[in-house]
Amino acid sequence: MSGKKLTCFDCGQLNRVPFDKLSAKPKCGTCGALLVGGKVTDVDLATLEKAMRNDDLPIVVDFWAPWCGPCRQMAPQFQAASDILAGQTRLVKLNTEAHPNAGAKYRIKGIPTMAAFANGKERDRHSGVTPTAAIIKWVKTSV
Ligand SMILES: [Zn+2]
Fold first, then answer.
1. Beta bridge partners of 7
2. Catalytic choice (8, 28, 31, 68)
3. pLDDT tens string 13-69
4. Helix axis angle, 132-142 to 69-85, nearest 10°
5. Angle CA(133)–CA(122)–CA(87) in degrees, nearest 5?
6. Cα of 108 to ligand 1 centre, how many Å?
């Protein structure tokens, strides 16, 4: 079987995307959400962990919260990095206020914190507001 397994961050469905479709804005076969590119999605812990177990592309999570000014300041930088890394690494957000169990499980001490996962394992993490170019550089050296 060729292609990459990607979990839909919107509905949790596991999709298989042919290699030649990775750059063609592939969509979830169940709900139609974009699997690669588009707006960075907010995930819950169950969906994130399913993606970590199954996905063939690395995942970078931005642990954030709506009350956190620096997090909101970083959001457009993170979105821009996601656009540039589309097809190589998928970037998602996790709202630690809405999902406090996730923040506890991953021992998030301060936000914003980015964590990079590949093949089901955490490779690296990085805290503090980070501009787009630095996010991309960090992702490329982490996964
Ligand atoms: Zn879906």
1. 14
2. 68
3. 999 999 889 989 999 999 999 999 999 999 999 999 999 999 999 999 999 999 999
4. 60
5. 50
6. 27
What the chain holds in terms of domains, given with CATH numbers, is: 39-142 (3.40.30.10)
For residue 89, which phi and psi values (nearest 5 degrees)? Answer: -140, 140
Selection from 40, 46, 63, 58 nearest residue 114 by Cα: 63
CA of 27 to the centre of ligand 1 (A): 8
Tell me whether residue 31 is one of the annotated catalytic residues.
no
Amino acid (one-letter) located at 40: V
Catalytic option among 8, 28, 31, 71: 71
11 given a catalytic annotation: no
In contact, 7 and 14? CB cutoff 8 Å? yes
Q: Check if the beta carbon of residue 63 is closer than 8 Å to that of residue 121.
A: no
- The DSSP secondary structure of 1-68, one letter per residue, reads --SEEEE-TTT--EEEE-GGGTTS--B-TTT--BSSSSSPPB--HHHHHHHHHH-SS-EEEEEE-TT-
Rounded distance from Cα 13 to ligand 1 centre (Å): 5
